[in-house]
Amino acid sequence: MVKKIALLSMDGHTLGDQYIFKDICLIPILLGGYLGYDVLITTEINQEKLKETFPNINFEFIAFQDNYEINMNQYLQDHANEIDIVFAFGAYPSYLQLLDTYKKGNPNGKTYLKLDMNRYWLNRLIVNSPDYLVRLFQHCDFVSAECSPIVKILEEKFQRKIHHIPNGFYDFFPTETVSYDEKKNIILTVGRLDAPDKQVMMIVYAFLNAQIPDWELRLVGAMSEQFKEQLMNFVAASPYSNQVKILGPIFDKRQLEEEYRQAKIFCLTSKVECHAHVLAEAAKNGCYLMLTDIDGAIDMTKNQKWGRIHPIYNWPFFSESLKEVSEQEELFKTTCVEIQNFARNNLNWHHLIAKIANILGEKRSEQKTDLL
After folding, report:
1. Are the CB atoms for 278 and 190 separated by under 8 Å?
2. Does some domain include residue 217?
3. 365 lies in a domain?
4. Domain count of the chain?
5. pLDDT tens-place string over residues 25-61
6. Is 332 helix (H, G, I), strand (E, B) or coil?
7. What is the CATH number of the domain that holds 232?
8. Is residue 112 classed exposed, middle or buried when 0-12, 13-18 and 19+ CB atoms within 10 A define those classes?
9. Reported pTM
């Protein structure tokens, strides 16, 4: 009988399009393919995009109305013995009961909790609910966090092994190592441009204020019409407006890959991040990283060897730093080689999945299948 991995959706969150190629879906799907296991994703809305993208994945409708936790709990009472590995995503309250129910129904089953936790969430839990993580971890065979500082805090506080599994990149098609000759004087950012926590306007302020000749800022990502109008009006008022390119969302993966390959600098000025997926993409393509002090920054810049870390709200300082670093051609050349070697050897999701399987004590199937 074929074994099964199941993703338990967190606290009634539906899996919209924005999750499709992120860790919450990629880990169970790639792990299932690596081990030759069936994959089950529980969610209320089985959105068409999910089914189109993953035709070989099973979806189980779990109603969120009335009480998601009760509905999910009942499902596990009925089906726990059919699931060999449960994948939980985030330290959400509902998992305390759900993982307990699963373990009671299948004592030999394995549970993997990926924390997806930034330092602010962790601090709130430690201060407001100091026993919660202790109880949650008791139901987990394997717990991972994305950033080494978070791992260190958790291990010291809870005296248990927390595995460091960063977020990675997935190659949808073969890619060659980026030659520095491909690089142009481009500063790139990719993400939801109008999200308040992303602080995209900070990048725009900083770039225009830096007045860097022969450089271009390229903004990739979705945004509301209202934000787009605000952004365009602000840029148009600057004498350097022709150096800012507002591209909007890019859905073609080859085209997006080309944006990363050409950029010398990748910027991320968020207030809060756990371990942004775009950092792995940028590193894989040899970009120098200009970041705010977000979780994951120390790891991804190798303690500022491959990038710089800045105060979260200080755009004048970011602007001066941007101007200074834009003149350091040799630094870009060295970083292009070193950071992509690191990323391609350590952050490819296929490598990370093999590591996860090993920690779970599961062996790669000779009949490995590609579920993507």
Report:
1. yes
2. yes
3. no
4. 2
5. 899 999 999 999 999 988 776 556 667 777 888 888 8
6. helix
7. 3.40.50.2000
8. buried
9. 0.93
pLDDT score at 371 = 57
Which range (5-19, 63-77, 107-121, 165-179) has the least confidence?
5-19
Q: Are residues 119 and 140 in the same domain?
A: yes
Tell me if 8 sits within 8 A of 86, measured CB to CB: yes
For residue 54, the one-letter residue type is: F
Whether 10 contacts 94, CB under 8 Å: yes
Beta bridge mates, 112: 87, 142
Three-state SS for 232? helix
Q: Which are the contacts of 112, defined by CB distance < 8 A and separation ≥ 6?
A: 85, 86, 87, 88, 140, 141, 142, 143, 144, 356, 360
- 3-state SS string for 92-159: CCHHHHHHHHHHHHCCCCEEEEECCCCHHHHHHHHHHCCCHHHHHHCCCCEEEECCHHHHHHHHHHHC
Q: Encode pLDDT of 76-119 as tens digits.
A: 999 999 999 999 999 998 999 999 999 999 999 999 999 999 99
246-265 average pLDDT score: 97
Tokens of 102: 């699963």
Domain extent for 310:
180-346
* Dihedral angle over CA of 174, 179, 182, 188, nearest 10: 80
